[in-house]
Design a protein that fits this description.
Helices cover 79% and strands 1% of the residues. The chain has 18 helices and 2 strands. The protein has a two-stranded antiparallel sheet with strand order 1-2. Helix 2 runs parallel beside helix 5, helix 3 runs parallel beside helix 12 and helix 8 runs parallel beside helix 13.
C-alpha cells in the first residue's frame, strides 16, 4: 500500500515538474522580450508601452503555437505518418521559416477591416485598443488550449479588436457587414472543408480501396492524387504563402502550380510503382503510400500558416510600434524584424511547450485517422483556402482543418452503416440457407470490388443468390455512430467557435477600460 502511494506521489511530482518547466520556459521568453526591447528603445518616448505590448505579443505568439499550429500537423500525427516529436520539429522550423521568409513587410493594423480607425480619437487611445485586443485574444486562446478546444486565432483577434474598438468609440465604429461575413464563416469554413475532404476520401475508396487488386489500382491512381495535392499546395503557396516575394493572380498561380504538378507526376509514377511491388494486396499496405505526401503537406501547411497567421500575433504589436514611433493611427504598418522574430520564435516555442495537447485532440480525439483520411484533410485545407480567397470569404484555417476531420469521420459513418445495411438486406433476402453457405457468400461479397458487388446484389434481387439469415441492424448503426465520430468533441468545438468572437470582444472591452483607467492621468 505504501509503495503504491509513493509511486502515485512520484507520478504527480513528475507531472508537476513538467508543467513548471513549460511555465518557466514561457516566462523566460517573455522576460527576454522585455529586456531586449527595453535595451533597444531607451531613448523612445513612452517606450514602456511598447515593451508591455511586445510582452503581450510574445504571449499571444506562444498561444498561437499552442493552439492553431496543431491543425497543420495533427492529422499527420494521428495517422502515424509523423511522430509527435517529428511533427513539432517540422512545424516549428517551417512556421518560423514562413514567418521570417514570407511573412510580409506590411500588415493591416485593423484585421479584416472590422472597425473604422478614423473614429478613434488619438494615437494613445489606439494603442490602448490594440493592447486590449491582443491581450484578450491571447487569454482566450490560452483558455481554449487548456480545455482542449482548437479555435481560430484570426477570430480571436477580430473579436478583441471589435470589443476594444466599441469600448473606445461606440457601436458605430464597427463594420457590421464584415462582422456578419466572419460569423457566416463559422459555418462556411468547416462545411466546405468537410465536403472537400469527404469527396477526396470517397474518390480514393472508389478508385483504390474498393478494388479487388488494390496494388494495381494504387500504382495507377496514387501518382495522380499526389499530383493533385502538388497542384493545390503549389497554387496555395504561390497565392498565400509567398505573396511577400511574388504576387500572382489565381490564373497565373494555377498555371505554375499545374506545371509543378505535372513534373511531380512524371517523377512519382516510377517511385510509386517500385514501392507498390513490395506491398501486400490490402488496405493497410496502400495506406503507407500516402506517408511521404502527408509529411510534405504538414511542412507546407506550416510554412503557409507562418507566412499568413503570424500577423495575428504581431499585427497589433506592429500597429502599436508604428503609433509610438510615428504618432497617429495608420491603416497599415511596417513590421520591423524584431517584431517578426517575436512572433516567429513565440509560435515555435508555444508549439513545442503546449502544442502536444491540441495535436492529440485534432489527430486522435475526433475520429480515427489513417494516412488516406489525413491526406484528404490536408487537401481540403489547401483547396478551401484557395476557393474562399477568390470568393472573398473570410475563412479560418482551424475551422477548415477540423471540419475536414469531421467530414471524413461522418463519411466513414455513412459508408460503414450503409455496408452494414447491405449485409443485413442480403441476410433478409432469404433466411433458410445453411450458415456455411451464408458465410461463403458474404466472404465473397467483402472481397469483391465495387462493380462485382453491384452484380451480386442484382443477382440477389433476381433470387439467384443463397438464402441468408436475418440480423438486427439498428444496434450496428448505433455502434458505428458512437465509435467513428465523437459527438461530445463536435459539441465542445462548435461551442468554442461560436463564443470566440463575443467572448474575446467582451474581455477586450473590459481590459480596455482597465488599461485606460490605469494610464489616464489622475
Amino acid at each position: 500500500m505504501e509503495l503504491n502511494s509513493i509511486r502515485a506521489l512520484e507520478q504527480a511530482t513528475n507531472l508537476g515538474r513538467g508543467e513548471l518547466f513549460r511555465l518557466g520556459t514561457a516566462l523566460l521568453f517573455i522576460v527576454a522580450i522585455m529586456l531586449i526591447v527595453s535595451a533597444r528603445l531607451e531613448s523612445v518616448a513612452d517606450s514602456y508601452l511598447l515593451v508591455v505590448a511586445a510582452m503581450i505579443g510574445g504571449y499571444m505568439a506562444l498561444n498561437i503555437g499552442a493552439n492553431d499550429v496543431a491543425n497543420n500537423v495533427g492529422p499527420a500525427v494521428g495517422s502515424q505518418a509523423l511522430t509527435l516529436t517529428g511533427a513539432i520539429l517540422i512545424a516549428a522550423v517551417f512556421e518560423a521559416g514562413g514567418a521570417l521568409i514570407a511573412g510580409g513587410d506590411v500588415v493591416s493594423t485593423i484585421k479584416k477591416g472590422i472597425i473604422d480607425p478614423a473614429l478613434i480619437a488619438d494615437s494613445t487611445t489606439f494603442i490602448w485598443v490594440m493592447m486590449a485586443a491582443l491581450l484578450a485574444a491571447a487569454i482566450w486562446l490560452n483558455v481554449a488550449t487548456a480545455v482542449g478546444a482548437p479555435v481560430s486565432t484570426t477570430h480571436s483577434i477580430v473579436g478583441g479588436v471589435l470589443g476594444a474598438g466599441i469600448a473606445a468609440a461606440g457601436w458605430e465604429i464597427a463594420n457590421w457587414n464584415k462582422v456578419g461575413m466572419i460569423a457566416a464563416s463559422w459555418v462556411i469554413s468547416p462545411v466546405l472543408g468537410g465536403i472537400i475532404a469527404a469527396s477526396f476520401l470517397y474518390m480514393i475508396k472508389r478508385t483504390i480501396v474498393y478494388r479487388a487488386d488494390k496494388i494495381a489500382a494504387a500504382k495507377r491512381m496514387v501518382p495522380y492524387f499526389v499530383a493533385m495535392m502538388t497542384w493545390a499546395f503549389s497554387t496555395y503557396l504561390i497565392l498565400k504563402g509567398l505573396k511577400k516575394l511574388w504576387k500572382f493572380d489565381i490564373i497565373s498561380a494555377s498555371i505554375i502550380g499545374l506545371a509543378i504538378a505535372l513534373t511531380v507526376l512524371i517523377l512519382v509514377k516510377p517511385l510509386v510503382s517500385r514501392a507498390s511491388n513490395k506491398l501486400e494486396n490490402n488496405r493497410d499496405s496502400v495506406n503507407t503510400l500516402f506517408t511521404l505526401p502527408l509529411i510534405f503537406a504538414a511542412a507546407l501547411l506550416s510554412f503557409a500558416h507562418g507566412a499568413n497567421d503570424v500577423a495575428n500575433a504581431v499585427g497589433p504589436l506592429a500597429a502599436i510600434n508604428d503609433a509610438i514611433l510615428h504618432g497617429g493611427v495608420a491603416a497599415k504598418a511596417e513590421i520591423p524584424m524584431w517584431v517578426m522574430l517575436v512572433g516567429a520564435v513565440g509560435i515555435a516555442l508555444g508549439l513545442a511547450l503546449y502544442g502536444p495537447k491540441l495535436i492529440r485532440t485534432v489527430g486522435t480525439e475526433i475520429t480515427e485517422l489513417d494516412k488516406m483520411r489525413a491526406f484528404c484533410v490536408a487537401m481540403a485545407a489547401a483547396i478551401t483556402v484557395i476557393i474562399a480567397s477568390q470568393l472573398g470569404l473570410p475563412v479560418s484555417s482551424t475551422h477548415i482543418a477540423v471540419g475536414g476531420i469531421f467530414g471524413v469521420g461522418f463519411l466513414r459513418e455513412y459508408l460503414e452503416a450503409n455496408h452494414a445495411r447491405l449485409l443485413d438486406d442480403i441476410r433478409d433476402h432469404h433466411h433458410d440457407d445453411a450458415p456455411e453457405v451464408v458465410d461463403a457468400f458474404l466472404d465473397k461479397f467483402d472481397k469483391a470490388d465495387v462493380n462485382e458487388k453491384g452484380m451480386m446484389l442484382a443477382d440477389l434481387k433476381k433470387n439467384k443468390g443463397p438464402n441468408l439469415f436475418k440480423k438486427e441492424r439498428k444496434e450496428l448503426r448505433k455502434v458505428y455512430h458512437t465509435e467513428l465520430v465523437k459527438r461530445s468533441m463536435l459539441l465542445k468545438i462548435a461551442a468554442a467557435w461560436v463564443i470566440t468572437v463575443p467572448l474575446a470582444g467582451a474581455l477586450a472591452a473590459m481590459l480596455y477600460f482597465t488599461i485606460r483607467g490605469m494610464l489616464l492621468p489622475h
